[in-house]
Structures are given as C-alpha cells and as structure tokens.
Amino acid sequence: MKEVQERTILLHDGTTIPHGLVVWSTGIGPTKLLQSLPFPKNRVSRLLTDEFLRVPGTKNIYAAGDCATSEDENYPATAQVAQQEGKYLSYSFNHIARGKTPEPFRYKNLGMLAYIGDRRALADLPNVKGRGFATFLFWRSAYLTRLVSMKNKILVLFDWIKASIFGRDISSF
Ligand SMILES: Cc1cc2nc3c(=O)[nH]c(=O)nc-3n(C[C@H](O)[C@H](O)[C@H](O)COP(=O)(O)OP(=O)(O)OC[C@H]3O[C@@H](n4cnc5c(N)ncnc54)[C@H](O)[C@@H]3O)c2cc1C
C-alpha cells in the first residue's frame, strides 16, 4: 500500500480501493532509547548481537528480544524468540559465573500459531498444519502453557471465560 487518503487507499500500481472505515495496524518501531544507543544496528534500529547475544565490541553488554537481532541471521520480533533468548541468557550467565564458556545461542523456530478471529486460528508447525475451530482450541492450549507465571495463566484463563460470557470488554478505567 502506498498511502491512505480520506475515502481512498492508493496501491503501488495506482489502483484505489474505496472504503468507509480504515483500521490501520502499523508495525512496531524502535524506542528513542534504542535509537540513541551508540552500538551497531540493522536498518530498523535493532541492536546487532554476536552468537552469545553480546553487543559486538563490548565485554558484558547483552541484548535480547525485539530490540536486538543476530549479526548473521535476522530473527523475527516475536515472543518465541524473546523467550528463547531470555532462557539462554540465564543459562549463559550461570555458566560464566562458574568460570565456564557457554555454548552459542541457537534459535529454534517452533512454528507459527495465529488467531484470525471468530474462534478460528491457523497453525504452521513443523509437524502440524491446521486451521479452524480445532486449531483455535490448540492455539489457546499452547498459549496458556507458554505464559511464564501461574498468575498470568490464571488471569488470561479468567479473561477468556469472562469474554466468552459477556463479550469483549474494551472499556479502560
Ligand atoms: C499487538 C501485538 C501482537 C503480538 N502478537 C504476538 C504473537 O501472537 N506471537 C508472538 O510470538 N509475538 C507477538 N508479538 C510480539 C511480542 O509481543 C514481542 O516479540 C515480545 O513481547 C518481545 O519481548 P521483549 O521482552 O523483547 O519486549 P517487550 O515485551 O516489549 O518488553 C519490553 C519492556 O521494556 C519496557 N521499557 C521500554 N523502554 C523502557 C525504558 N526506557 N526503561 C525501562 N523499561 C522500558 C517496556 O515497558 C516493556 O515492558 C506481538 C506484538 C504486538 C505489539
């Protein structure tokens, strides 16, 4: 899409799509803090890290999650990457504290699950491909097991139950 004007969406080929309401969901961007850091970054301002998730040229500055990516491979900005990197860093720091050298970080792509609304989801995992209501139930189970704390598991579960009975609550107070 090239640009959105009032009542018209202009595509690169010059075609326009008439519309009444546009809900624009743009991508995430780097924070000002990240932009101001004097370390090597890629073209979308993510910090580049070596195989130990260290900022190159520094001894003990590490970067993980959305704010960083590898020098060799562009990791997606997803919770899956952030969680694996977080686990790796706890392993790595414990190793270093014991005077050992940690293994390099290896990202393992576990696949993709996405909710597409109306109690339907998509699954694109190494051994499972699916769509529809059954995949939605699978997505919700996977989601719950991946939440880190028991508190969040309970909060999210009750939120789903509440939303299924009363509908989604969009009020903020
Ligand atoms: C709408 C949306 C939907 C998403 N859906 C999915 C999905 O379905 N699956 C998936 O895998 N990923 C999804 N993601 C991406 C996922 O949320 C991120 O990849 C993940 O949260 C990255 O974790 P992080 O710890 O790097 O960053 P974050 O979770 O963003 O945590 C960064 C933290 O740093 C804090 N912070 C920022 N600046 C400062 C500062 N100056 N001082 C102190 N603290 C600061 C922030 O408040 C925040 O708590 C989604 C993201 C969005 C926005």
- What global shape is seen? globular
Task: Enumerate the distinct ligands.
Answer: flavin-adenine dinucleotide
Mean residue pLDDT? 90
Find the count of extended strands (DSSP E, 2+ residues): 8
Q: Helices and strands: which structural class?
A: alpha+beta
Order of neighbouring strands in the sheet with most strands: 1-2-3
User: What is the helix content?
Assistant: 25-40%
Which radius of gyration do the C-alpha atoms yield?
21 Å
Low-confidence stretches: none
Secondary-structure element order, N to C = EEEHEEHEEEHH
The main β sheet shows up as: 3 strands, antiparallel
End-to-end C-alpha gap: 35 Å
Beta percentage is: 15-25%
**SS element count, helices:** 4
List keywords for this structure.
binds flavin-adenine dinucleotide, 17% strand, three-stranded antiparallel beta sheet, 173 residues, alpha+beta, 4 helices
Could you give the topology of this structure?
Elements: E1 3-5, E2 8-10, E3 16-18, H1 32-36, E4 47-49, E5 68-70, H2 79-97, E6 112-117, E7 120-124, E8 129-132, H3 133-146, H4 150-166
Parallel strand pairs: 4-5
Antiparallel strand pairs: 1-2, 2-3, 6-7, 7-8
Characterization of this structure:
With 173 residues, the chain is α+β, with helices and mostly antiparallel strands. Among the domains are: 32-97, no CATH class; 112-166, no CATH class. The protein is 32% helix and 17% strand. The chain has helices at residues 32-36, 79-97, 133-146, 150-166, and strands spanning 3-5, 8-10, 16-18, 47-49, 68-70, 112-117, 120-124, 129-132. The strands form three sheets. It has a three-stranded antiparallel beta sheet with strand order 1-2-3, with no helix packed on it. The two termini are 35 Å apart. Bound molecules: flavin-adenine dinucleotide. The site of flavin-adenine dinucleotide has 11 residues, from α2.
